[in-house]
Structures are given as structure tokens and as C-alpha cells.
């Protein structure tokens, strides 16, 4: 009974603060910021990857970003992304790429603002510190994507060598699609831990952010599945929005994911508040 009361108190606290602190409006802001940051980030990353010799980066980046999206949403957007990324670019280290990195960092700033609100924290760090940290996040993500791109190029060769030397490993190797999905999922999990730990102001213990991340991952899968089923069965987006259908679907999907992400932060904050209140009660 006590656990039920505690669970209800935490959930009501998280949902109430999400509503009172304009969580839906923040989800909208985060969704649009993420969409606007996506192309600049991929353009910057592709240009840097080409400079480093990772010519297969565009395809890998598309898989890493969109493999965890429902196919109905990802397919049309992914085609346009590939069209943009395969345009030859020679402006590395010029203002074009610098601006792309800056605009990509706006998406990171939207994550920071959302989490500061969710964790009920007042930001005290300077603008320059926050912006440099956001650009650093963009650079780390880019370098990680490039490293994964190179790894996936050599993955079939490595797999054949391992299978030749260790026959027992063959059933566990899977296909390149399985590996891409696994890596994309791992990138999401690592990214969630990184942004919850270091983007908001203040300090958080590693264990304290796990409940919100677990909630985010589960709710993401459930929400994506339901939205994909809705698109298959009931959607009138194509007839309503015509050529804008794919972008409208992406916006709605990102809005759902953004609300889930913010609720994950709210859940962590609510649990921390409950535990602090319990610690103050004598006996």
C-alpha cells in the first residue's frame, strides 16, 4: 500500500509540474528546434566526415538517426536527407559549416532549457559557457557518427574473419541491418544519459537519472508503435497536407517524442523530491 501511495504521489507530482510549467509548449519548442537543427547537424557532420575520408558517412548517418523511427515517418524524410547530404560541399572550416554547427547547437540548447525546467533548476552558467558546451556536444556527436561510419564499413570484413576463426559465433553475428539498429539504439541510450547528466545546471547522481531514461525509452517505443499504427489505419495527413504530409508527420512525431523526453526529466525530479521529503521525516 505504501508503495502504491508513493508511486501515485510521484506520478501526480511529475504530471502536475509538466502541466503547470508549460510542458506541452516546451515539447513544441523542442520538436521544432530538433527538426531545424537536424539538417545543419547532418550537413556539418557530412562535410567533416568527407574531409576525414569517411565518404560513406551520409548513408550511415541516415541509418543512425532514422532506424529507430517508424518507417512511415522515417522513409520520406530520410530520402530528402540523403539528397541534401550527397550534394558536393567544399566549404569546410568556412562560415557555412561554422553556421551549420551553430544552428545544430540550437537543438542542444532546446534540450537544456527543457531539462532545466523539468528538473526545476535555475540556470546560472554564462551564455558563452552554455553555447560552447552545446557546440562541443555537436562535435562529439559528429566524431561518434564518423567513427561508427568507419566501423560499419569494416564490419563485414571483421565479421567474416571472426566467423572463419570461430564457427560457433556465426549464429550471433546477425545481419548488417540488425547491427545498425543495435548501434542506433545504443547511441540513443548513451545520448540520453549524456544530456541528463551534463546539460542541465547542477549535479545529478548517475542512478537518479535512470528511471526517467527507462521511462523515455519504453514510452518512445510504445508511442512510436501507436502513432505508426494510427498512420496505417486512420491517418488523413496525405489528403490534408498534400506535399507537406511527410514534414507534418515528422513534426507530430517529434512533438510526441519531445513530450516523452520532458516527462522523463519530470519523473526524475519528482522521485528526487519524494526521496528528499522522506529523508526529512524523522524515524
Features:
283 residues, mainly alpha, 11 helices, globular
Strands, helices and their partners?
Blueprint: H1 2-20, H2 23-51, H3 57-66, H4 71-85, H5 95-118, H6 127-165, H7 170-173, H8 176-198, H9 210-233, H10 237-241, H11 245-280
Helix pairs in contact: 1-11, 2-5, 2-6, 2-11, 3-4, 3-6, 3-8, 4-11, 5-6, 5-11, 9-11
Q: In total, how many domains does the architecture comprise?
A: 1
Percent of residues in beta strands = under 5%
What Rg, in angstroms, do the CA atoms define?
A: 21 Å
Q: For the record, give the distance between the C-alpha atoms at the N and C termini, rounded to a whole number.
A: 19 Å
Strand segment count: 0
Please report the number of helical segments: 11
Overall morphology: globular
Mean pLDDT: 79
What structural class do the secondary elements suggest? mainly alpha
**SSE pattern:** HHHHHHHHHHH
Main sheet makeup: none
Q: What share of residues is helical?
A: over 70%
Poorly predicted tracts of residues: none
Structural write-up:
This protein starts with a helix and ends with a helix. It has one domain (2-280). The protein is built from 11 helices and no strands. The chain has helices at 2-20, 23-51, 57-66, 71-85, 95-118, 127-165, 170-173, 176-198, 210-233, 237-241, 245-280. By secondary structure, it is mainly alpha-helical.
Amino acid at each position: 500500500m505504501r508503495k502504491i501511495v508513493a508511486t501515485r504521489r510521484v506520478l501526480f507530482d511529475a504530471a502536475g509540474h509538466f502541466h503547470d510549467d508549460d510542458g506541452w509548449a516546451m515539447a513544441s519548442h523542442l520538436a521544432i528546434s530538433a527538426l531545424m537543427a537536424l539538417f545543419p547537424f547532418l550537413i556539418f557532420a557530412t562535410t567533416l566526415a568527407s574531409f576525414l575520408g569517411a565518404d560513406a558517412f551520409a548513408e550511415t548517418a541516415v541509418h543512425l538517426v532514422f532506424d529507430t523511427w517508424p518507417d512511415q515517418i522515417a522513409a520520406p524524410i530520410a530520402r530528402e536527407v540523403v539528397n541534401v547530404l550527397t550534394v558536393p560541399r567544399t566549404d569546410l572550416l568556412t562560415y557555412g559549416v561554422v553556421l551549420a554547427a551553430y544552428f545544430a547547437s540550437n537543438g542542444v540548447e532546446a534540450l537544456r532549457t527543457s531539462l532545466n525546467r523539468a528538473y526545476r533548476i535555475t540556470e546560472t552558467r554564462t551564455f558563452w559557457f552554455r553555447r560552447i558546451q552545446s557546440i562541443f556536444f555537436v562535435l562529439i556527436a559528429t566524431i561518434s557518427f564518423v567513427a561508427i561510419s568507419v566501423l560499419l564499413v569494416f564490419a563485414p570484413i571483421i565479421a567474416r574473419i571472426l566467423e572463419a576463426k570461430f564457427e560457433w559465433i556465426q549464429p550471433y553475428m546477425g545481419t548488417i541491418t540488425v547491427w545498425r539498429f543495435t548501434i542506433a539504439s545504443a547511441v540513443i541510450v548513451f545520448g540520453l544519459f549524456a544530456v541528463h547528466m551534463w546539460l542541465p545546471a547542477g549535479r545529478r547522481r548517475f542512478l537518479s537519472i535512470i528511471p526517467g531514461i527507462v521511462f523515455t525509452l519504453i514510452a518512445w517505443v510504445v508511442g512510436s508503435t501507436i502513432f505508426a499504427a494510427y498512420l496505417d489505419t486512420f491517418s488523413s495527413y496525405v489528403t490534408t497536407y498534400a506535399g507537406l504530409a511527410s514534414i507534418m508527420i515528422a513534426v507530430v512525431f517529434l512533438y510526441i517524442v519531445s513530450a516523452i523526453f520532458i516527462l522523463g526529466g519530470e519523473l526524475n525530479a519528482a522521485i528526487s523530491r519524494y526521496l528528499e521529503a522522506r529523508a526529512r521525516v524523522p524515524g
